[in-house]
Amino acid sequence: MSDRFREAMFSYAPTPLKVLARGEGARVWDVDGVEYLDFLAGIAVNALGHAHPVFVDAVSRQAATLAHVSNYFASEPQLELAERLKRLTGGTSVFFCNSGTEAMEAAVKIARRTGRPRILALEKSFHGRTLGALSITGKPALREPFEPLLPGPEFLPTTVDALEAAIGDDVAALVLEPIKGEAGVLDLPEGYLARARELTAQHGALLILDEIQTGAGRTGEWFAFQHEGALPSGTMPDVVALAKGIGGGFPIGALVAFGTAGDILKPGDHGTTFGGNPLATATANAVLGEIERADLVGNARAMGGRIRAGLATLAHPAITDVSGRGLLVGIGLTGPWANAVAARALELGLIVNAAAEDRIRLAPPLTIDDADVDRFLDLFTQALAATESSSS
Ligand SMILES: *Cc1c(COP(=O)(O)O)cnc(C)c1O
Is this entry keyworded Amino-acid biosynthesis (predicted)? Predict the structure, then answer.
């Protein structure tokens, strides 16, 4: 199978882990019928798990009704999703696209259109692979092969001191993830986001939050900036980028603007053919509607708590720390064993992700229950044996 992949595909590692055939809830099966507990969910995408009836029904019905119309026309699902995202975020207006990186492209264009030259981003951040989003991604190994990129972005250490030193009236925007998912689920320092809001407001710079991974209930609030005390009370971000979980597996991205940030791009400045089409937006409406109906935000909080309590009880000597919030979980390891642990887990029938050489990332469906968590803890404990074998 890896030969077939190698001969037919480019840009990804030539040996995919498994060839998957179908899924149901938090379970997937490969082409040989082997079952896996999926604690990655397509990287925080399959919010309702696999083949959820609400998702299946929404895609099927809308495909049979009206799939695509172009942005010369509006559609009911599109307007409903824009209104839903406004209600859930507290934002003012929405731009639709098809992926996370495209949402960040639109954010970068907003920043540039302010006329100010500087964009501040953080070291170890990840905002996507297209050239604008890549320009503000704080991982030199991803950026350098494609330089020169956009001039202007500066990458700061994630400290309030560094931000205070860098901010000024020539800064268009500060861009950041509330939790750095691709870096291995790294939390911001306590109080950082709130201070970032104050400083950007003082200097008239936009605060652009990349909630592509943390949004849609994943962290135990609808959006990570809504956690108690995350922002100074009564304040909002200027722009929030969304994708991944909002479509539950259907490709969609969205950029939510708050207040005047939504007036910066003028008609004709930006657009995309598929953005906000009825098929994508009807599906996202159904997914977000089900997250609301079933209180999966509360479930993310509860199950995240159960995972954290279970890992604490385990007190495994190879675990250094547990980061993230809700069902976005980072597990720090004492050494570069993450790939070995993830590979061992897969052999045992558990999908987790080595997001950094010494950090495991979990992002299971928001629908998981106690039994799924207990099964995860059992399999993960077994997989941790890979740290001992590689360290001894
Ligand atoms: C996944 C991700 C992106 C890029 O999204 P794509 O849909 O892969 O283009 C950007 N920012 C963050 C924080 C992400 O997790």
Answer: yes
